[in-house]
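Discussion board: Methods & Data

I've been asked by a reviewer to show the raw model output for two of the constructs in my manuscript, not just the figures. I'm not sure how much to include, so I'm pasting the format here to get opinions. Each protein appears as its amino acid sequence followed by a line of discrete structure tokens. Is this the kind of thing reviewers expect to see in a supplement, or should I convert it first? Here is construct A:
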Amino acid sequence: MISLTDIQKILRGNIAVDEPMAKYTWMKVGGPADFYIEPMDKDDLKAIVAYFHTHHYSWMILGRGSNVLVSDEGIRGAVINVEQALSKIFIEGGLVIAEAGVRLTKFVDFCIQNEFVGVEMLAGIPGTIGGAVAMNAGAHGGEIADHLVEVEVIRNGHTQQVKNENAQFTYRHSGFDQDVVLSAAFKLQRGDKEPLSVKRRELILRRNETQPLEFPNLGSMFKNPPNTFAAKLIEQAGLKSKRVGDAQISEKHANFIINLGNAKAEDVVRLIDLVKRTVYQNSGVMLELEVKMIGFSSSAKEAA
């Protein structure tokens, strides 16, 4: 069994014990993790991941917590936040290199200021490069994989480069589920700064107008099925504003579940189950979750 003292011998960064995950998820729900870790830099991250790997200790990477639902019981093992350790973004050999902890807003702004075209659709998405690559995030018909050349990861304890064509990118999915994303390299076309800035502002305004950003939420809860939209199916099923505890289907956007103040993960799970059952009964479409469920039993995950 690994102790706090054991970890402190390896780690140079910060560590907290029994840290509530509600503090680090955009939904503001989730019980405590046994250990919450913020490595100081890339070497610190590699050292602690290698230590956990060698000792077969359970751990996971957390970005900004914008697409994860953590159970009320919390997470057994360690949660590692990489925003401090992996925060660099730069241009090298004509490629834009962004480390995994870089926020998408910073990434988009950097590209626009350096007159690179192609990632404006990510403007306003509250995540990090690492999380966006791992789930192949996207919006407005584009995906982060569209301009990605290669990804640096820790896989099976070793650092390696994975080319785009070997990354198994599909809709909101990649082959990096078991890896630690360290950085990503992008090949982007050149463009003019002014129209790019205008487009960025327009996209952010559109998100503000159409999404319930005034409430804690996890973004799009369900993946869009082929040839339709999850929000449309949920609305057609008469589920807008449905509520379980303090978890509610948004009146502004039906594919968002919001926290009205004191929602529990259990409330969200019950609402997810209601949506899936009702939409299936109404349309014959079984919705698939876009968010990741962390700390739940296998049966709870399958039910949701």
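Construct B, same format:
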Amino acid sequence: MKTKAAILWERHALWSVEEIELDPPKTSEVLVKLAASGMCHSDEHLVTGDLAGATGEPPCIGGHEGAGVVMEVGPGVFSVAPGDHVVFGFVPACGRCPSCAAGHSNLCDLGGITASGMQLSDGTSRHHAQGQDLRLGIGALGTFAYHTVVHEASCIKIDKEIPLDRACLMGCGVVTGWGSAVYAAGVQPGDTVAVVGVGGIGANAVQGARLAGARVIAAIDPVEFKREKAMEFGATHTHASIDEALAAMSETTWDRGFDKVIMTMGVGNGDALGQAFWLGGKRSKIVVTNIHPTSEASIAIPAVFLTVFEKQLIGSLFGSGNARRDIPKLLELYTQGQLDLDGLVTRTYPLEGINDGYADMYAGKNIRGVLVYE
């Protein structure tokens, strides 16, 4: 079939929206008509090359935060059927590998295969344009398109009553941010929490910390609009910089340091992480959720604190969550009014407006821009 998609033909170029040829699904694959896709900062790593070698290389279709309706399934698919509404988990979950069996599907072995940008089932392409095979970006999903073909392991069936332009955010930003606070940081009632960076992931780390019962949530971001939004999501304090947050710790933590520090910047930076390490108090957890460039070979942290103060440096992928458990659970919290998805969507764009959406992201105008497909 013919459809349209946003293609990155080369590094540091704009997304090109054009017609593509899409093959039908093969064994274990699902054809989905997309309704919406979040515009996560991580997809810009495809443009900059920050994730070179860790995800599909150009030419590729971007997007990994999508939701839509199943149109067709290939042989062997049993968990979804035509007409089902689905959210894509950007890390596939096979349910059988050692990580999945241990309850850590965010580290599913299939996740390593997605780096090729080809179909997980056989390593070939279903997406083609201008006589070339197209790879898929993060998660091998290609949600910057009206239609895509993905592996069944990436599809999470959801209730048809949930609006898809909100549900799409579950594919990455919401679970990643919320889980960074609830699972990776292990926020407990009464904890003091600092969230560094308040975009689509950081805003949900704030929400997760609030739902977990934190008494202080300090949101740190240089953009005033994002600091204001953080207060709506549950922050108790805001700061324009890490330095400002450090200077205010007598007020926010009674000079004890934060119990939990969650790094959710747009692009990870070793120097900023080293500085943020000072925010943590004794036995604090510093959670690194934001993506650091693959070219960054080292980070600078005061390592003596690891021993003498028992500070812990923790990495977290997809918020250390479980897509099949957490996506339905968080959507229930949304329907009950306990989780704010509506406030996350700052602006919506047509597929043809994708470059405008990313320009707005860089300008600090959006918590999350969403592509909505008619």
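Answer (T.O., handling editor elsewhere):
This is acceptable in a supplement if you add a one-line summary per construct. For B, something like: The CA atoms of residues 333 and 339 lie 5 Å apart.
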